[in-house]
Design goal:
The complex is a heterodimer of chains A (about 220) and B (about 250).
Chain A: H1 2-15, H2 19-44, H3 49-63, H4 67-82, H5 86-111, H6 115-123, H7 128-158, H8 170-181, H9 184-213
Helix pairs in contact in A: 1-9, 2-3, 2-5, 3-5, 4-5, 5-7, 6-7, 7-9, 8-9
Chain B: E1 14-21, E2 29-36, E3 41-45, H1 52-59, E4 67-72, E5 75-76, H2 84-89, E6 91-94, H3 106-116, H4 122-135, H5 151-163, E7 169-173, H6 181-196, E8 200-204, H7 208-214, E9 217-222, E10 225-230, H8 232-237, H9 242-251
Parallel strand pairs in B: 3-8, 3-9, 6-7, 7-8
Antiparallel strand pairs in B: 1-2, 1-4, 4-5, 9-10
Helix pairs in contact in B: 3-4, 3-5, 4-5, 5-6
Classes of the chains: A mainly alpha (about 220), B alpha/beta (about 250).
């Protein structure tokens, strides 16, 4: 028993230093995806067909290709030409892929805001950007928190894919340890536990955020 | 305002000329013309689908006109121009469904547009907003959210929000149609008080008694056409047109 505990402790000691890398990759790529995704979402609701079409093309292309393929394309394809470091290539690939999903969530959130909110704001003389910024997006953001959190959690898990290009994050560290010490079961068990701990923390954060931003009088009744 | 156009004192506040909306079979408007003098109330009545709401919505550009002319305070409303937001700022609108900003408190609902459209400092707008809330009987509800208010209260906030922009004209699109019967009078009382103060208003309504009492001029519309315009005593008491008579006989 104590021997097994000692082994787990050793695995943990080996893996923990790789956790910050996973967190960094996740945060960087999610921020990039959020930034691009809001842009894509705004494109998708434009009246101008060319702008709307561009948003659609972006979503369809990036959503229709496996993330692993995007990572290979960015790292080996673009990376060779542009000399991208592993971290930048990994973050760029995940960020691009997730911008498509986030773009669709943002669009759904904006479209869920009743037409009357637009009309009220416009009738008060507010311009399109003012209406978007002060009336529509603040309400859409609240609607979009649950899907956005889903995407954040997926993003965290998918950050493991960049291990294939040699970026040292949690999954890569697990592979190194398992192949050096021939302890697959215990190693992957601990890797799984570490991911689980992070995603559960995110889930807590999500419900906290939802509660903080709930509009009074709009509580859901069971 | 823009400065290039100025309404003379004897010009009407609102002038509608040959207004048409053709390509919508349901909500067509055909060659409608009328004027609203400064400081008076005009009621638009008629069966549903008669185009009265469409006309009101065209007055502040929420609905496009196909042809015709609208002048608000002497300024032509023209969809190609950039003056649409400017004109809208001078022309408040109250909707059937209130349309309060759901994520903002009552006071923030009032202060939002004056601060970002008129660029007035919040410290100057807020006392005015509080005074308006007191006027519509909602002092003390400043920090409530729309969903915490009754329909009648929400509609009174909506009126105060429109007034907070200091508009020259107020448009009401069936302001009491979504309200419980016992809440209707609290909203009508507010509109009545505004009429006494000389606010220029256009009101689309099904409340015939109210239209008769508060309006200086009544427009009866049917199937997109302006059938009859007159003073309330004349239009309700002795309508000239057969269609007006038939409609009034049905609703009164």
């Amino acid at each position: 028993m104590t021997e097994q505990l000692a082994q787990f402790a050793e695995i943990l000691r080996f893996l923990l230093p790789a956790v910050p890398a996973t967190i960094q990759i996740t945060l960087a790529s999610f921020l990039l995806a959020l930034f691009l995704g809001i842009g894509v979402g705004l494109l998708r609701i434009q009246k101008q067909p060319l702008l709307r079409g561009a948003g659609r093309l972006w979503v369809d292309c990036l959503r229709g290709v496996p993330l692993l393929v995007i990572i290979f394309f960015v790292y080996f394809g673009l990376g060779k030409v542009l000399h991208l470091p592993q971290f930048v290539a990994g973050v760029l690939a995940i960020g691009l892929c997730y911008s498509a999903y986030i773009g669709e969530s943002v669009r759904a959130g904006i479209e869920a805001i009743p037409q009357g909110q637009w009309e009220a704001a416009r009738s008060l003389g507010m311009s399109w950007p003012q209406t978007m910024r002060h009336v529509v997006l603040p309400q859409a953001f609240r609607i979009v928190i649950p899907p956005l959190m889903n995407e954040f959690i997926s993003c965290l898990k998918d950050s493991s894919l960049v291990s294939v290009v040699g970026l040292r994050e949690l999954t890569r560290a697990g592979r190194d340890y398992a192949s050096a010490k021939f302890v697959d079961f215990q190693t992957w068990f601990v890797v799984g536990l570490l991911y689980l701990a992070m995603t559960l923390a995110l889930t807590r954060l999500s419900s906290l955020l939802e509660r903080r931003l709930r509009i009074p009088g709009r509580e859901t009744h069971s | 305002m823009s400065g290039t156009f100025h309404r003379r004192d004897d010009d009407p506040m609102v002038r509608v000329e040959a207004l048409c909306k053709r390509y919508s079979p349901q909500f067509s408007v055909q060659d409608v013309a009328f004027e609203v003098p400064d400081g008076t109330v005009t009621a638009l009545i008629g069966p549903s689908g008669s185009g009265k709401s469409t006309i009101l919505r065209m007055l502040n550009g929420l609905e496009r006109m196909d042809s015709g002319r609208i002048l608000l305070d002497g300024i032509p409303l023209d969809h190609a121009a950039r003056n649409l937001d400017q004109v809208r700022a001078e022309c408040g609108m109250v909707f059937q469904q209130f349309n309060l900003f759901a994520h903002l408190t009552v006071i923030d609902n009032l202060c939002l547009a004056p601060t970002i459209v008129r660029r007035r400092p919040r410290a100057e707008v807020e006392p005015e907003a509080r005074e308006l809330l007191r006027k519509v009987g909602l002092a003390g509800k400043e920090f409530r959210f729309p969903a915490q208010l009754s329909g009648g209260e929400q509609q009174r906030v909506a009126i105060a929000r429109a007034l907070c922009m200091r508009p020259k004209v107020l448009l009401f699109d069936e302001p009491t149609s979504a309200l419980d019967p016992e809440k209707i009078s609290e909203v009508l009382d507010v509109i009545r008080a505004l009429a006494r103060e000389g606010m220029t208003m256009l009101i689309v309504t099904h409340e015939m008694g109210f239209a008769r009492e508060v309006a200086h001029q009544v427009c009866f519309l049917d199937q997109g056409k302006l059938v009859e315009v007159g003073a309330p005593e004349q239009l309700f008491g002795a309508p000239r047109e057969e269609r007006t008579r038939v409609f009034l006989a049905r609703v009164l």
